[in-house]
Amino acid sequence: MTTRTDLPYLRRRVRPATAPPATAPPATAPAGTAVADFLSGRSVRPGRQNPARPPTPAPTPEPTRPAAAPPAVGSLDLGGPAESAPAPARSGTSLDLGSEQPAAPPTSRSVPAPAPGGASTSLDLSGGASAAAPASRHVREQSYDLRLPTITEHERRVLSATDRVVHLTRMQSAVGRLRIEPALGAGEHLDLGCVLETADRQESIVLGTLNRQGPDPRRPMVRCGGQGVEIDLRRIHSLSRVLVVAVTPRLPGGTLVVTTYGGSRMEITLPATATLGAQALLTAYVVQGRLVLRAELDPFSGTLQQVCGAYGYTDLTWRDPATPLV
User: Three-state SS for 210?
Assistant: First the structure.
């Protein structure tokens, strides 16, 4: 490798090393001379003698501190451990979490007297009688037995003037549909209608000749048609009572058959007689989530408006005595 000589400014400059300055050994004073003794502190300046030191005075005794008074209640004592006065008795408004010193065992267990008005302002975590649990804001409805006859699954029963009421169970009242349909002779026809009142006290009527389902067509509770009346029991808690009527100038006889989802069957014998336009056949009431069915067997007949009013449905509006406004 060759070194270029045409670029002198690119030459490497090396700073010459400088030798560290020589340190002379520390001069030591000649031993035994007066100057050496002065510099080392062993003597005073030459020509003077060591002055006589004054005698050291005796230490003054420290005054005795008076005994500290016991700290006042509520003071903050940062001094040393001192014997303090006995702790005051616990008040009724204190928060007692226990102490290091064990308390003397009581001779007899006593129950503290309640505060005036039945309220207590103390929070005692050391034990004792526990406070009474607060009452729940949810009040359970008291159930009661109506002592009415019931019907079992797949049982068939004829309702008469002496045995006209059946109390369905909760299962029979809440599952499937309750079907009410007439069983008639050949060539006979019977139009059924259903008047109902919901749990919010709204009355409505469903007829096979006007509106086949209701009260809300989007979510109907009741359907009426050529096969009779169907009540949706899944919405039983939204229902209060039901009236099934025959809308006809003449009852053709036959039997009104009521069937549950479980196969229980109730039969009501229909008379063959003329009417004034309508006649009540069956009523149903919801009592604590259970249906109570009753065969009316009522000889009273009248216009549809009169029959509905006789059974308490007075909030309905009418076009004429035979046609409701729906």
Answer: coil
Sign of the CA dihedral running 77, 80, 86, 89: positive
Instruction: Please answer whether residues 206 and 213 qualify as being in contact, where contact means their C-beta atoms are separated by less than 8 angstroms.
Output: yes
What six digits make up the tokens of 240?
């209060």
- Split into its structural domains, the chain has a count of 1
For residue 235, give Cα distances in angstroms to 165, 218, 221.
22, 13, 7
Q: What is the DSSP string of 105-170?
A: PPSS--PPPPPGGG----EE-S--SPPPPPPPS-PPPPP---------TT-EEEE-SSS-EEE--H
Report the C-alpha dihedral over residues 266, 271, 275, 281, rounded to 10 degrees.
Answer: -10
Residue 27 burial (CB count, 10 A):
6
Q: What is the CATH number of the domain that holds 235?
A: 2.60.60
> Among candidates 176, 161, 195, 172, which has minimal Cα distance to 292?
172
Q: Are 247 and 304 contacting, i.e. CB atoms less than 8 angstroms apart?
A: yes
Tokens of 313: 């449905």
Residue 272 lies in a domain: yes
Q: What's this model's pTM, rounded to 2 decimal places?
A: 0.58
The answer to whether the CB of 285 falls within 8 A of the CB of 291 is yes
Could you report the per-residue pLDDT of 50-90, keeping only the tens digit for each?
555 555 666 666 666 655 555 555 555 555 555 555 555 55
Task: Pull the structure tokens for residue 29.
Answer: 């004073």
Sign of CA dihedral 34, 40, 42, 47: positive
Domain membership of residue 308 (yes or no) is yes
Side-chain-side CA neighbours of 292 within 13 Å: the count stands at 13
Q: Which residue has the higher pLDDT, 90 or 220?
A: 220
Is residue 245 within 8 Å of 182, Cβ to Cβ? no
**Cis peptide bond upstream of 215, omega within 30:** yes
Query: Which residue, chain included where needed, has tokens 């039997």?
Result: 255
Residue type, 91: S
Supply the range of the domain harboring residue 194: 156-315
Fill in the DSSP letter of residue 276.
E
Alpha-carbon separation of residue 301 from 152, 249, 298 (angstroms) = 33, 10, 8
